[in-house]
Design brief:
Layout lengths: L1 H17 L13 E6 L14 E8 L4 E12 L20 E17 L2 E16 L4 E16 L1 E3 L4 E16 L3 H7 L5 E13 L1
Antiparallel strand pairs: 1-2, 1-9, 2-3, 3-4, 4-5, 5-6, 6-8, 7-8, 8-9
C-alpha cells in the first residue's frame, strides 16, 4: 500500500507542477532517451518487490515514439486483485512467489500537445518459487498495458517525467502451478487504474 500511496502523491505533485508550465508541444531535437519507472524506489521499502526497469526510446516523429523495455520483478499474490480490503490481504498470498523477466516493446503517441497514450506488449518468462525459495515451475505470460499520461520536460529538455494511469491485461498465462492457479482463479486477469511515473534522460 505504501507504494501505491507514494505513487499517487507523486502523481498529484507532478500534476500541479505541469500546470505551472507552458502547455506547449514537444519541440526538443533530441530523438533518444534512457529511462525507468519510479516504482524502482519500492525496492527500498519493507518487503521489496525486486522491481527493476530500463527503457530505451527512439522518437520517430514529433508525435511518435517506440520504446524497448527490460523489466524484472517479483510478486507474491495475484495481479488481478483490485484496490480494497483484499489488495494486501495475507489470505490471498501465493504459497511462494513469482519472478518475471521480460523484454517488451511500447508505442507512444502524443494526442494533444503534452498528453499521450501508449501501448505496451511484454512477454515474460515466469519462474515460480515455493516458500523455501526453490524453483518449482517455469511458465510464460503475455502482459499488455494501455497507458494515458502527460510528458513534462525538465532542465532545458534534457530530462522528463511522465505521470500516467494504466490499464493492464494478461491474456496468456501458461504452465502455472496448481497451488498458484487456485489463487489466480479468484480474480480477473486485468487491473484497472494503476498509477505510473516514468522518468528519463534525453540525448
Amino acid at each position: 500500500m505504501k507504494t501505491i500511496i507514494t505513487s499517487l502523491l507523486l502523481y498529484i505533485f507532478s500534476f500541479s507542477v505541469v500546470h505551472s508550465q507552458e502547455n506547449k508541444e514537444q519541440t526538443s531535437d533530441k530523438t533518444r532517451f534512457l529511462g525507468s519507472s519510479l516504482f524502482v524506489l519500492a525496492n527500498f521499502l519493507p518487503d521489496p518487490p525486486s522491481f527493476y526497469q530500463l527503457n530505451y526510446g527512439y522518437r520517430l516523429t514529433p508525435k511518435d515514439t517506440i520504446v524497448i523495455e527490460a523489466i524484472t520483478w517479483e510478486y507474491t499474490a495475484p495481479l488481478g486483485i483490485p484496490y480494497g480490503p483484499s489488495f494486501e490481504s495475507k489470505k490471498e498470498k501465493y504459497p511462494g512467489y513469482v519472478k518475471d523477466i521480460g523484454i517488451g516493446l511500447a508505442y507512444q503517441r502524443f494526442i494533444h500537445k503534452i498528453f499521450f497514450t501508449s501501448i505496451h506488449l511484454t512477454p515474460f518468462r515466469q519462474q515460480y518459487f515455493d516458500q523455501n525459495n526453490e524453483q518449482i515451475q517455469v511458465g510464460f505470460q503475455l502482459f499488455l498495458t494501455l497507458r494515458f499520461g502527460y510528458h513534462l520536460m525538465l532542465f532545458n529538455d534534457s530530462f522528463f517525467i511522465e505521470p500516467s494511469i494504466a490499464f493492464t491485461h494478461w491474456p496468456i498465462n501458461t504452465n502455472v502451478p496448481n497451488s498458484f492457479k487456485e489463487k489466480d482463479n479468484n480474480w480477473p486477469n486485468y487491473f484497472l487504474f494503476e498509477p505510473g511515473l516514468h522518468f528519463g534522460m534525453k540525448f
